[in-house]
Amino acid sequence: MSDIDQSEHAPRHHILSVLVENRSGVLARVAGLFARRGFNIFSLAVAPTDDERFSRITIVVDVASAPLEQITKQLFKLVHVVKISELHPAESVERELMLVTVKAEPSLRTEIIGLAEVFGGHMIDVGYAELTMSLADSPDRLDACEALLRPYGISEIQRTGRIALPKLRRA
Predict the structure, then answer these.
(1) Considering only 34-38, 105-109, 164-168, which range has the smallest mean pLDDT?
(2) Which has fewest Cβ within 10 Å: 11, 76, 79, 122?
């Protein structure tokens, strides 16, 4: 089961792309709105856009915690929100970054490095008994890689949360 879909037809999460004015305190207001309303944020990522006046906040919200219409109405009430787009998983491209440190005896390093390469990962740090790798891919692929790395022993793991954009239209 994918972490986005309970079934092929019923998304478990809403992915919202929220364009906001790039001002101090905007993220705090958005997060505060979710907290006050009891909406569960599954993932949150924010960064400036190509236009320095704006930032894009990608919010993955648990469907069970709040109806989408209620979330968007509340977000639009915030002064610095410019635009809100719902990104359906089938109509968007999603990426997430994962840094993971894995226990790696010298005899297993080639095997672990090969596994990381299958998923497009890169070694970013090497210690005496561990390797740290960086992977950027869809959440499902990162889940799969994480599951395959677990038997080796994951010492530390950090994932960024999703970022997403609409898929481009094909002519």
Answers:
(1) 34-38
(2) 79
Kind of pairing between the strands at 92-103 and 130-137: antiparallel
Asked if residue 123 has pLDDT above 50, the reply is yes
Give the range of the structural domain holding residue 35, as residue numbers without chain letter: 13-86
CB distance 40 to 62 below 8 Å: yes
**Other beta carbons within 10 Å of 83:** 11
**The dihedral sign for the CA sequence 118, 119, 122, 125:** negative
Q: Are 23 and 57 in contact (CB under 8 A)?
A: no
Report in angstroms the alpha-carbon separations of 2 from 11, 15, 123, 140: 10, 15, 26, 6
Q: What is the pLDDT of residue 65?
A: 63
Same domain assignment for residues 121 and 73: no
Provide the 10 A C-beta neighbour count for residue 61: 21
